[in-house]
Amino acid sequence: MIFLKKILIFLSILPLALPQDIFDPDTFPRPLIIEINEPHLKEVQLQCTSWRVAVEANNLSPWKKIPEECGDYVRDYMTQKGYEIDLQRVCNEAGIYARSVNMSGDGKIAWIFDVDETLLSNLPYYADHGYGLEIFDSTKFDQWVEIGMAPAIESSLKLYEEVLSLGFKVILLTGRSERHRSITVDNLLQAGYRNWDKLILRSSEDHGKTATMYKSEKRSELVEEGYHILGNSGDQWSDILGSSMSKRSFKLPNPMYYIP
Amino acid sequence: MIFLKKILIFLSILPLALPQDIFDPDTFPRPLIIEINEPHLKEVQLQCTSWRVAVEANNLSPWKKIPEECGDYVRDYMTQKGYEIDLQRVCNEAGIYARSVNMSGDGKIAWIFDVDETLLSNLPYYADHGYGLEIFDSTKFDQWVEIGMAPAIESSLKLYEEVLSLGFKVILLTGRSERHRSITVDNLLQAGYRNWDKLILRSSEDHGKTATMYKSEKRSELVEEGYHILGNSGDQWSDILGSSMSKRSFKLPNPMYYIP
């Protein structure tokens, strides 16, 4: 029996030594090299998922780049199904909530959207910069912003249109600089966004503030102007936490960078 | 070549037809049945991970039980490595933060801990109740609480001891009822917890309030008493959000149940 087993091991390995054209991965068991690597891959998968959950649950202190060992994991998450599924889920939940809101009143019920990684995707930029493995370079990123070619995040565009059609006032609140107003407007329009009530960007006196401070101040001003902030979508916790928080907030996934 | 390929396919499948004692899963490629099932399993894994991330990021509206299709996923997460790794990560992050706090001053710097699924684990109870697949039954759960045998969450016990030794005042703030004070104290002591400053339970006037309201009110009272709440650990967002929020909060994982 042991001899038979050895012959079978040899024969099951044999296809690996044959030319590629007769090796069909859909029919044959996968090459042994993958089997050997799996325990390590599973451990990395588990640790990097745990890291990503900690990011999404706001458990980490400010970080400047993703863990070295999670480079492949984050790339795969962003470019395969994971990111897309998570975006759909959170935007779908937001839509269910939006439809449940009583819209009667003074017509000043507002939904706030962040811009980068919320309405617009900078994935083409981050694909060229290691999906978060490189420390953020504002000069290079500004060059990307100034092209004005960031595509829409489709799930957000769908939510945006629904929220508008329900009668929410849409406020765009972004950490982008006031000097990028014009290109940001062009990019948003080109990506399909329309009819926002306000687009708020960082003015010169907002530089130096954390995003949490800046966005809290702007939300407080909106409340003073009479807006009722009932929904808020952002990919950073600094879009959500602080003062004058929205009745409900939706944290879009983003394992590539952290803004305090 | 095609004939050779067919022979190799046959021989690679042959081990499946042989008695178990000559089939060594560590040496042979895994049985084909697992390969066939993988795409479905991977899809469930992906969807349930996405659901769990949405729970941890506070993106879901109140839910009463876990999705039916995630029953096996949540059981595996709780009983295999996932839960343990996530607990270690969040408690480790909390420890790093705790050590960074400037402890000088009036000696009233406080760390709040929730009890269930934060200091004490009810996993033995939930193992008997489908890990969240069953709707919460307060009568049965109370019977479990009254045994007083919930074990410590080891990562939390380690953090608890460190936080105490750093000089934080430890406040335990739980949704458990005042009538369970005595058994809760016994259980906490038996699990290794010591020297808390206060144990706050729901009194009769707190029943009917959401956990967010009840815990916010209690935090506000603590602030009025002069405590500076600089750390907060809980497995529910209702432990964390609301008024008088802690300077930093740590969301422990819990995919089994949701408390609004």
Can you describe what's shown?
In chain A, helix 8 (181-190) links the parallel strand 2 and strand 3 (198-202). Helix content of chain A is 45%, strand content 12%. Chain A has nine helices and five strands; from the N terminus they run H-H-H-H-E-H-H-H-E-H-E-H-E-E. Chain A is an alpha/beta fold and 260 residues long.
Topology:
The structure is a homodimer of 260-residue chains.
Chain A: H1 2-13, H2 32-56, H3 71-79, H4 81-100, E1 109-113, H5 123-127, H6 138-147, H7 154-166, E2 169-177, H8 181-190, E3 198-202, H9 211-224, E4 228-234, E5 248-251
In brief, what are we looking at here?
The structure is a homodimer of 260-residue chains. Chain A is α/β, with parallel strands linked by helices and 260 residues long.
Features:
homodimer; 260 residues; 9 helices; 12% strand; Acid_phosphat_B-like (chains A, B); glycoprotein (chains A, B); HAD-like_sf (chains A, B); Acid phosphatase (chains A, B); APS1/VSP (chains A, B)
